[in-house]
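Sharing in case it's useful to others searching the archive later.

Someone asked me privately for the predicted structure of Efflux RND transporter periplasmic adaptor subunit, so I'm posting the question and my answer publicly. Question first, with the sequence:
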Amino acid sequence: MKTYTYIIAAIALSIFTTSCGNDEKKVTADTTPPIPVKVSAIQENTKHPFVTASGKIQAKNSADLSTRIMGYVNSIPVNVGDKVKKGQLLISINNTDLQAKSAQIDAGITEATVAFNNAEKDYNRFQNLFADNSASQKELDDMTANYEMAKARLEAAKQMKNEVNSQFAYANIKAPFTGIVTSKTIEVGDMATPGMPLISVETPGLFEVIASVPESEISEIKTGTKVQVNVKSINKIISGIVTEVSTSAKHTGVQYLVKVALNSTDAPILSGMFTTVQFPVAKKATTTSMILIPKSALVTRGQLTGIYTASQSGTAVLRWLRLGRTYGDTIEVLSGLSANESYIVSAEAKLFNGAKISIQ
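And my answer, the predicted structure tokens:
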């Protein structure tokens, strides 16, 4: 009988202890202080102040160098990434044929010079004889024609020399300005052909953007307009100014090209990066409703982007979003939120899905 009494007492004690422990845990969970947060209501925008256009960054000073002669490459004393000065040799092309042609022309100039000197002497002599009535008009005319032909041959030989000298400049390709070698499409021993890009040089630190603006908005874009350029690959916004506005879309379809000079910046921008240029002018075309939220409120988890919202039960709920274009410090929400909903702007502690919150 005593044994059964001890067993019942032990079971009762165990139940009491478990119950107390659960009550203690429940009290602890219920008394966790909520996280103070600030919320903001979403406003649906039917119009925004920006005309946007896609663009691409390029160096302000950039050159793709080629040659006008055909020949094997003898040397390339520079590599991609090297800094070069104006006039520095970049590529040397074999010019043996030009040297031979130059020697032939030099010989032709010598021959034409001798002939011209003799023709000039005969012409001067016959002028004196004709003045003394010792030579006929026919003889003087013959000497004059011979003199003019010799003079023309000498001038032609000199112009051929100038042509060869100009071709020598294409055998030794030099830097047109101080900059950096950005690409090289040929190696020593390769055959260089006329018009083929061989090496590219650009000036670092000076960049511009070429943007394509639709015909419905181009009339609002003016030279001198200050703009914002969003470089998505480095998540930076750089200011700039419109320097050129195309007045024809003959070769670009219905898109007009606008050139924007970027201000000096420490951002690691490079030629070829894609951008979105934001022009601070009202759009003419009818726009659909859009939802804009501040980028500072976004939460990133790997490849996903979301935002915390406040539930009716007073907890934080993480909503994944599909985003669109960036407009200044705000970004367009394509899906995941609807108008008149509220989202958490800031919190005094780290939020997580289901955390208790207190709206301030």
